[in-house]
Amino acid sequence: MKTTKLLFAAAVLSVFAVGASAEEYQGVLQFQSTASRAAVHADAIAAAHSVDPYAEGASAGVPVAIASATDRAAVHTQAVAAARAGDLYAEAASAGTAPRLSGTLARAAVHAEAVAVAHGIGSLGL
C-alpha cells in the first residue's frame, strides 16, 4: 500500500516537472540595419543637441526670457525701498525686534511672588 502511494506521488511530481521547463536559449539576437554607421552617428548627434520631448520641470531646459516693460533702474529703486521698509509678510518673531515693555510691579515683588508660588504658599492656599 505504501509503495503504491509513493509510486503514484512520484508519477504526479514527474508530470509537474515536465510542465515546469524553462525556455530555451536562442543565443544572441542578430540585428540587421539598413543605415550606415555614419548615418546613425549623425542622427545621434542631432538627437543629443535637440530639445528633449520627454523632459519635465527642472530638466526641461532654460525657460525663455520674458521682456519686461519696466526699466532696470525703476526695479532697483523699488527693491531698495521694499528692503528698507522691512518684511511686510513677516509674522511674530521674524517681524523684527519686539519693543521693550516696562512693568508696573517692582522686581523684588515679582520675585517674592514667584518664590511663594513655587513653594505652594501663594494665593491658592496649598
Give the key terms.
mainly alpha, 45% helix, 126 residues
Descriptive notes:
By secondary structure, the protein is an all-alpha fold. Helices cover 45% and strands 0% of the residues.
Care to count the β-strands? 0
> Averaged pLDDT, please?
77
Question: Which stretches are low in confidence, meaning pLDDT under 50 for 5 or more residues running?
Answer: none
From the spread of the alpha carbons, the general shape counts as flat
Quaternary state reads: single chain
Query: Roughly how much helix do the residues carry, as a percent range?
Result: 40-55%
Our estimate of the beta-strand percent is under 5%
Structural class: mainly alpha
| Termini Cα gap | 90 Å
For the largest beta-sheet, the strand count, sense and barrel status come to: none
* Rg (C-alpha, Å): 42 Å
Order of helical and strand elements: HHHH
In DSSP terms, counting alpha (H) and pi (I) runs of 4 or more, how many helices?
A: 4
Short overview:
By secondary structure, this protein is mostly helical. It is 45% helix and 0% strand.
Secondary structure: elements and pairs:
Elements: H1 2-19, H2 37-49, H3 72-85, H4 107-118
